[in-house]
Structures are given as structure tokens and as C-alpha cells.
Amino acid sequence: MQMENAAVKKKRRVKIRKWWRNRRFLRNHVIICGLGRKGMQLAEGFAGEGHRVVIIEIDKDNNLISQCRKKGMMVLIGDAANEELLKKAGIKKARYLISVCGEDKTNTEVAEKCRNLAENSHNRNLTCSIHIENPRLYRLPWEQELGMLPDQPAALLKENKLQINVFDGVNVLGLLDGTCTPAVIKNEGCEILAQTIHEEYVHKQRHQGQTPQTNPSMVSWHLLPETLKESNRNQAVHICVKLKNLGCGIAPLTTWNPPDFKFTPDEIEQMARLEHERWVEERRTAGWKYAAGPKDIREKTSPYIVPWEELSEKIKDLDRDTVRNLPLLLAKAGFQIYRLKEKQKEDKEESR
Description:
single chain, alpha/beta, Rossmann fold, Globin-like, 2 domains, two-stranded antiparallel ribbon, 14 helices
């Protein structure tokens, strides 16, 4: 057994030396700074997608190092903010760099060095993501994606002594492990929400007794036709539009028990109407038209392509229920709803 273990270790050392000699040939790989729980989760996630992963860890006694090396990942020991170490990790040709070290300041320092090196090497493909514990800061990129940026984001950064522009090729990760995934790193927030919308639809259809045979849309996301994927994406984007219209926004979850958010009756009615109008416009754009009787997929006709006022209360309730369940749907996707005025009030209190 000892001879076998020695042989395995020798084989691994040879593999690592070979990998190290050929590191100059690395292209589009992933660099992860910090090998804690989040770092390990990201490393396994990217490796599972087929990416080559390089890890920078300051603690040479970290027990996770051996696990990563066994899985074929390269681990460099040292300070991730050290430019020479970043160069050894192949920063000039990397596709992603994610810094999940222990402190916000350390992560922003890594991002700053990373950006400078990438600019000097003309690496325009690099996406840098950093872990931020301050919720006022990590909300900014998500608000940017939804068009709900605060008036003075630069002032907020300066106030928190983070001298880095998070809107210039740098993504920000929140507190929860659910935000530390390849999908979030790749800035696929709307895609995550679209998939969750589809999964919820399939669940409801199954509960109603439908099957893939009676409803061809009841398939996993990767088997769904692109037209239906796009429909879910449009619905995801429009959720943000409707929320913004109410003075609300969404952000990654900050606790495992998000606030019990509830819409007022007027808000439910307003959002339900907007959702129906969005659906009617989408149907008409796709070539559907009104016709009495049951929905006909082949002929592209539906009895519900009418103004909101002409719908029965039973059909209106379907849209109202969708709005009522929106906080739960977003929580399943890793997001929470907040009211912009309340957030601004909290920010003012925190800054005192």
C-alpha cells in the first residue's frame, strides 16, 4: 500500500511539473484566489465545466490544496495580490479571475493588480470577479444590469475606501455560496432567473396532471427550444421592468431567511396587468392571434389575446397569483426583492 501511494504521489508530481513547464501554453483558463469554501466550490464548478483551473492560496497548510491537486488543478502558494505570482498563474491569457479571499480590501487589491496586468498585456477577454461582504457594494453591479443604479456609486466606493471601479470589467459576488457559481461569474443573472421560471412552470404543469406527451414544453432547460428559452428570458427581464416601475429592485440573497416581502393589492393588480400586456405583445410578435375556444398551438390562436379588461376574473387571478409568488420564485433563483426607498434609508443610517 505504501509503495502504491508513493507511486501515485510520484505520478502526480511528474504531472504537475509537466503542467508547470507547459503553463505558457495556457489559454482561457480560470484563476481563483483564495481556497476557502467558496474558492473550492468555484474551482470544482469550473473544473466540472471543463475549464483548466489555477488556484492561488496564501496558506501552504490548507488541507484543500491536496484535494485540488488530486483533481488536476494547479495550486500556487503566496499572496494573490503579488503581480509576479499573478503572472505565473497566467493572468495575461486567462479568461476569468475570481478573488474570494477573506477581506474586501484584499479582494479589491487583487482586482486592481489583475486589471492593470490585463491592460498592459492587452487581454480584453478577462473577466475579474471579487467577493464583497458589504451588501451596499455588491448590489451595485446587479442594479447596473437592471438599470437601477444609485445616483453616486463612485461616492459609495470612496466612502468604503475601495479604490476600484466595479463597473469596469469587474463583477462583485455577495455573501452566500449560491452567488459563487460559474453562472454568476459569467454574469448570467437573467439566465438563472429564466431557468427558474421554466422549472416552476414545469412543476405547476406536472401538479395539474400534464406530462411531456400532453405538453411538449415540459422538458429540461437544455432540451427546450430556443424560442421558448427566449420567452423565459423576456419574462425574466420584464420582472425587473415591473419591479422598477413600482420603485423596487432585486439583489442576491444576503441571508438564508430573506425578508417576508409582500406586495400591496394595488401593486399586485398593476403588475398582473403589465404581465398580461407583455404576454399579449409577445404572442402577437410570434404570430399568434385571437380566436374563441381552446388554445390551438398549431394554428397559433388563443382566447386570451385580448385587453386586460376583457379577461375573466379566473384568468386574471392566474397573473395575480404569479405576482404574489414572485418573491418566492426569486428566492429560489438566489435573489430577493427590496424597496428602493427603504434601501436608501438603510444606506443613510449605515453611513452615520
